[in-house]
Design brief:
- The protein is α/β, with parallel strands linked by helices.
- The chain folds into four domains: about 5-195, Aminohydrolase, N-terminal nucleophile (Ntn) domain (Glutamine Phosphoribosylpyrophosphate, subunit 1, domain 1); about 210-345 and about 445-515, Rossmann fold; about 345-405 and about 415-435, no CATH class; about 525-585, no CATH class.
- About 40% of the residues lie in helices and about 15% in strands.
- The strands form four sheets. A six-stranded antiparallel β-sheet has the order 3-4-5-6-10-11, with helices on one face. A five-stranded parallel β-sheet has the order 14-13-12-15-16, sandwiched between helices. Strands 8-7-9 form a three-stranded antiparallel β-sheet, with no helix packed on it.
- Helix 4 (about 210-230) packs antiparallel against helix 17, helix 7 crosses helix 24 (about 570-585) and helix 23 crosses helix 24 (about 570-585).
- It is globular, with a radius of gyration of 24 Å.
- The protein starts with 11 loop residues before the first strand and ends with a helix.
Length: about 600
């Protein structure tokens, strides 16, 4: 099991084994280089900890615990965690600032206490065995090596994946393997497992000016970057042409920044990253990624991802992490700013929708219900959004297949799973009295951020033994984000209104104004090339594809795209990624 995740910690390995438990640990040395090996113990060695991540306020907590009589033998944040639990129990979680998943074993009563950080930056999976045992770890693939693990696909995971592009259920694509949700802890004793939420987001807008909002953002972001750069090994920054990573790089001012792009002109922002790096006095190291490299590594990428995930930006992120690891062990990146400060275009209505909303709601509502039952046509999205509540149409930043479309291409045994509304409904219920933009932000923070953005950030960086830190996703930054009025997030002119104003104090104005592009990948163009068309067609025509899909429908999707009839790139790629993942984990030996 430890050998399977050696990429997460190539520097050292540690074990603790007794009659009740076996704890394994892989170490990537960053803080406490000489004395940070885990598992780690409290003074009487009755509590044992394994921990993945960083606690950014560990020095203050260590001082407090020493004053309370605790004795430390290392300088690590790991040891702070175990003494925190010893002193405060479950309430320790209210004190932590960082990214983490950790497990503490209590020898006194043979119990487990485990927790995951506020946003889900670090993963934690668990599985209950038939003999009332518990497996847990940072990656599912390590479970495959355990004799009590039964590898079986979760048939309920596929249909929602086709809509969301990532594994959206609490139970993963591996039957019986669950994700511990962000902001939750887990307790396990005598074969019984319980989970509980310890933290949640609450958008409580304050009545403050734009200038005050900007001042608060600037102060908290700088402070967050300051604590996130704590390391005994080199720290760099990922840098695209966007405002988020640029803001972080400008606050950090590392020696080196890293950027990747593609051969196609519209899919390469590395010249912008180089220009900004030069103005900040930072060395910018770049790589151009080819289509061949991407297709050759998709299987490896999905292996590291553990579950199928078809966000194309996973491809450049994999190569960007590989590039950075040649120079540094830690990088800072800009994830989270869009969700917290309102960065996505879909958070606001476009001009066409604003005009449409001048029609009385009762007529728009009738039109939306009719349009929802019809095949796609130009203007359909506007009609549905204009006559519906946010809860009825917004599922986050990706919508690949409509629910009915997904059902049509799947074999019947893979269509029995939660509906989209059953997935999003409980989340929306928690913010039913908030404004529409806050509702969208909350849903993205709960689903899209942890299921897509942070999952690929962790898995692609750790595939190369690189620690990726995200200063925007800090509970102190979130407190400020919760307080900013909606009108200072999104207005008629732009997104991230207040954040961009704060960024102007650290960046050239044109960078602060730059529109969001994400991480553009030319999948659409590649699938029109015969070489890659044939690679995908072979997968779509395979015997294992027919286990899940009506393969004639898959070929039609692919052919229509290849022949320029319709842009099916994201649909084709989402199916292809699932088949690549399935082949790697269930057909090939791993």
């Amino acid at each position: 099991m430890l050998e399977t995740i050696i990429h997460r910690g190539p520097d050292q390995t540690g074990e603790y084994i007794d009659n009740n438990i076996a704890l394994g640990f892989r170490r990537l040395s960053i803080i406490g280089l000489d004395n940070g090996l885990q598992p780690i113990f409290n003074e009487d060695k009755n509590l044992v900890l394994v921990f993945n991540g960083e606690i950014y306020n560990y020095k203050e907590l260590r001082y407090e615990l020493i004053n309370r009589g605790h004795i430390f033998t290392t300088t690590t944040d790991s040891e702070v965690l175990i003494h925190c639990y010893e002193e405060f129990g479950e309430s320790m979680l209210k004190k932590l600032r960082g990214m983490f998943s950790f497990v503490i074993y209590n020898k006194y009563d043979n119990s487990i206490f485990a927790a995951r950080d506020h946003f889900g930056i670090k993963p934690l999976y668990y599985y209950l065995t038939d003999d009332n045992g518990l497996l847990f770890g940072s990656e599912i693939k390590s479970f495959l090596k355990h004799p009590n693990f039964k590898k079986e696909i979760n048939k309920e995971a596929l249909k929602p994946y086709l809509t969301f592009q990532y594994s959206v259920l609490e139970e993963t694509f591996f039957k019986g393997v669950f994700k511990l949700n962000p902001g939750h802890y887990l307790k396990f004793k005598d074969g019984k497992l319980t989970t509980k939420e310890y933290w949640d987001i609450d958008f409580r807008q304050e009545i403050i000016s734009l200038n005050k909002s900007v001042e608060k953002i600037e102060k908290v972001v700088k402070e967050s970057v300051e604590v996130h750069k704590d390391s005994e090994v080199p720290v760099g920054a990922f840098l695209s042409g966007g405002v988020d990573s640029s803001y972080i790089a400008a606050c950090l001012l590392p020696q080196k920044s890293f950027s990747v792009g593609f051969e196609q002109d519209k899919f390469n922002e590395s010249s912008l990253a180089k220009e900004l790096s030069d103005s900040l006095g930072i060395e910018n190291i770049q790589k151009v990624v080819t289509a061949d490299e991407c297709f050759e590594n998709i299987s490896k990428i999905q292996y590291h991802m553990d579950e199928p995930q078809s966000n194309p930006s996973s491809l450049p992120l994999y190569f960007l992490s590989e590039l950075a690891r040649e120079h540094v062990t830690v990088v800072l990146s800009g994830e989270g700013a869009d969700e917290i400060f309102g960065g996505y275009e879909w958070y606001d209505d476009d001009d066409r929708l604003k005009k449409y909303k001048k029609i009385p709601y009762k007529f728009r509502n009738i039109a939306a219900k009719v349009a929802g039952k019809l095949p796609n046509f130009k203007g359909r999205t506007t009609i549905i959004r204009g006559g519906s509540k946010v809860e009825d149409y917004f599922i986050g930043q990706a919508l690949i297949f409509e629910e009915n479309e997904a059902k049509k291409i799947l074999n019947p045994e893979y269509t029995n799973s939660k509906s989209i509304k059953e997935i999003t409904g409980p989340i929306y219920n928690k913010v039913k009295y908030k404004d529409d933009i806050a509702k969208k932000q909350y849903l993205d923070l709960k689903l899209w951020l942890q299921g897509d953005i942070l999952l690929k950030a962790d898995k692609m960086s750790m595939a190369h033994s690189l620690e990726l830190r995200v200063p925007f996703l800090d509970k102190e930054v979130m407190k400020v984000g919760e307080s900013i009025p909606t009108r200072y997030k999104v207005n008629d002119v732009t997104t991230k209104v207040a954040l961009r104003e704060a960024a102007k104090k650290n960046l050239p104005e044109e960078w602060a104004k730059r529109e969001k592009k994400g991480f553009p990948v030319p999948i659409r163009l590649w699938l029109k090339e015969e070489k890659y068309y044939n690679i995908v067609k072979e997968a779509f025509s395979s015997d294992y594809a027919s286990e899940f899909f009506k393969t004639k429908d898959l070929i039609k999707l692919l052919d229509n795209h290849y022949n320029n009839k319709v842009n099916n790139a994201r649909k084709v790629y989402t199916i292809y990624v699932f088949l690549v993942w399935y082949k790697r984990f269930f057909i090939e030996a791993i």
